Amino acid sequence: MERVARRRNHENENGYSKEKDKDPEFVHRESVLTVLMNESLHIKAIYHIFVAILIMLFLDTVIYDIVERGKLNVGIASVVYGFGDIKRAFKIWLFELTLALIFYPGLRIYAATRKLVKKSAVSCQLLSVVGVICLILLQICLIGVPCWELGRKHLAVGSSVAVTCEMFRYAMKICAVAVDCIPRCHNDQRPLPPFQHYLYFLFAPTLIYRDSYPRTKKIRWGMVLFHFSEVAAVVFYNCFLWERFILPYWSDYGKKPQVEAGTVVRGMFACVLPGLLSFLCGFYCLLHAWLNAFAEIMKFGDRLFYEDWWTKSRYSNYYRAWNRVVSSWLRDYIFRPITPLAGRPLAYVTVFFVSSVAHEVILALGFGFFYPVLLIQFGVMGVMLLPLTATAGKRFPSIFNMFMWLSFFIGTGMLWSLYPMEYFARKNCPPSENDNFFIPKSWSCPKIVLKPNWTFENPFDLNIE
Fold first, then answer.
1. Residue 438 counted as domain residue
2. What's the pLDDT tens digit per position in 178-199?
3. Which entry of 28, 48, 227, 359 is annotated as an active-site residue?
4. What InterPro entries does this protein map onto (predicted)?
């Protein structure tokens, strides 16, 4: 953790560190939680607490279903439903992988053609235009075809989220290789990477292309099995949270024409804690367990996929520390190219816009409807909180760290309420002519009303009759 402390001490007024202003260096290092759990019994105890909660939820599900229904349910039904039609999802993923593999021979063809016409300036310019058009068309097909296919026929939430994330992952990797390798086609100083290295990069847990990465000497298969078992456990964990905390409040939403406002408010507050647990589990599943498992398989030595985001007091630092894999890509391929042309404010807005739109596409295709709650939270509120916490968060770190956690509670509670409300409103409400992908159904069905004869009484009135 000394590296993390040194990095924090070197932050300047804009929230950037000197190390982060340079190209990212890949070195042998473990993930932050791996270091903490190996060195601190306190962190390991917190990990054991989450495991104990998972066991209690498991027992709650098993015992309740045996007593109430006389059958055993361990959440497998929710997992099967969430990852339904896996064959169709696999076909879409194969299409995405095929387009990612096609890029490499296209790059080779472009380099060979460039050598043949290098003496003609006009031919070189024409070839560059053709190359850019082909790259854009490839990216359009890579993103457009899966989006069209998933929009044409809805796929289960888990399967849809998986193939959509893979779609964006391949698109970002192609962009990284293109930025690094296309300039090599214009001169002979550096050769193009071999196909084996390109294939390695496609599956390596990084979005920044380099000709070499630090590699470990061997694969610890026990560690791979352990991390994949954690991924499976988190999937079941979220299914338990869904079945025990979300379905009881929202599964009947829309079956009646009216619902009392108090019921909605109570349900939204009841989703705050399970929403935060899901948020933490999602972080641990994807950015720690899943990436560390693949890093071990690929012998990828640099495993700093995130930093200690839970200690931050400024949103600018949180967004960079939360997911270093994606934030590094956004910094190198969007923020830095735009900053000299349009300035840092517009570059920040562009980064947040691109990231929020990508997140919203994943959710929209996963749920089967467009409901831009996350887009507003991330793309609007997130941008507004950057300047608000830039100075105050530095002066009062403890207060604003608590403020950040309060915002996590509120934000995840809203996500775990509004999206299920819309999802079940579309399932339970009667169909109408206005139903479509973009107009929220939950705004018109059911109607949210106050209790009959509801009045507001002064809470400070102590007169007792």
1. yes
2. 999 888 888 767 888 999 999 9
3. 359
4. MBOAT_fam, Oat_ACAT_DAG_ARE
